[in-house]
Amino acid sequence: MPAPHNPFKAALKAGDPQMGCWLGLADPYVAEISAGAGFDWLLIDAEHAPNDLRSIIAQLQVIAGFGSHAVIRPTVGETWMIKQLLDAGAQTLLVPMVESAEQARELVKAVTYPPHGIRGVGSALARASNFSAIPDYLKTAREEICLLVQVENRKGMEALDEILQIEGIDGVFIGPSDLAADMGHIGNAAAPEVEAAVLDGMRKIVAAGKAGGILTLSPKMQRECLDIGATFVATDIDVTLFASAIRDSAKAALSLLPDQSAHGTAETSNASRYLQQLCKHWSHKAAVEFDPNAGTIRFDGGNQVQMSATATQLAVTATTGPRGDLERWKGVVSRHLERFAFREEFSLVWQD
Ligand SMILES: O=C(O)C(=O)C[C@H](O)[C@@H](O)CO
């Protein structure tokens, strides 16, 4: 009985595009929900997410019951880490920060048993061999291990041609975020120079007969990479999906509650001047509408000011969202108006 078949590796070999999702919530409950969503593969991230061997094993166990394939990204491509992940039952690894053919060569040895590699023999204890229930695991494991490497800086891109020559590397993933940073465009993987480098690298990978992969939230880049022939493309991240959805949900819930408002007046013959000064002062960072007699200032976070001016009085309404700090906001508005009215005895008296 051989090592379990790796359908993901077979699909990449057949050039059959596999669509994936990043898992960074580091929780088997979330992995189980994600595994039932329909993605072809799920990346369990131990580089940028709080995963450890135990959390990875728990996620491998729940994903095993679904059609999605688990791809594990170790923190670094260390032999000891790879040994533990393979014994834990990972069959596909995505190793970050590969910068040279020599590094790629060492990774191939780390996933290969002796005499051709250096993977330690411990299958008797390993989940990978179903705890020795697979008698010829040692002889058949390598064929079902899919080794993917990440090229994600200028050094790695310069070595890409040599990396692509290394036998035993099944695919190369280009990391746009890290590549952007190394190219001087940190936080901007959409920079034209970065996108061009990513697409050029992807063409080289596909032309070399290796599987090309990427994680990009850009529909344009997803399409372009697939059109080039990339075969493992991740299009979303569980962390950002959840964070965005729950923030929107909280905003919608709070929008059902009433805003908080306070009303104040100041006796002054310069009401229109101060109204217009405050509107102009905040016009660069808020939505402002005003004329000499009335003005409205709306900030994105929910803080607002409405003002009206007569020949003798300035009327002000300060508003915050249902959970805003109204007292603080009243103080901010008062201090700004008092600063504009420094030439006179000015007092904004709040009625509530
Ligand atoms: O450089 C990249 O892009 C990647 O390797 C993916 C990131 O590590 C992932 O955390 C999304 O930013």
From TrEMBL:
Catalytic function, reaction form: D-glyceraldehyde + pyruvate = 2-dehydro-3-deoxy-L-galactonate
Source species: Flavimaricola marinus
UniProt xrefs under InterPro entries: Aldolase/citrate-lyase_domain, HpcH-HpaI_aldolase, Pyrv/PenolPyrv_kinase-like_dom, Pyrv_kinase-like_dom_sf, UCP028291
Coiled coil start-end: none
Keyword Metal-binding: yes
Listed GO CC annotations: cytoplasm
Cofactor(s) the protein needs: a divalent metal cation
Family stated for the protein in its record: Belongs to the HpcH/HpaI aldolase family.
Boundaries of every HpcH/HpaI aldolase/citrate lyase domain copy: 18-244
Key words of the record: Lyase, Metal-binding, Pyruvate
Listed GO MF terms: aldehyde-lyase activity; metal ion binding
A Pfam family annotated for this UniProt entry: DUF2218
Protein name, per record: Hydroxypyruvate/pyruvate aldolase
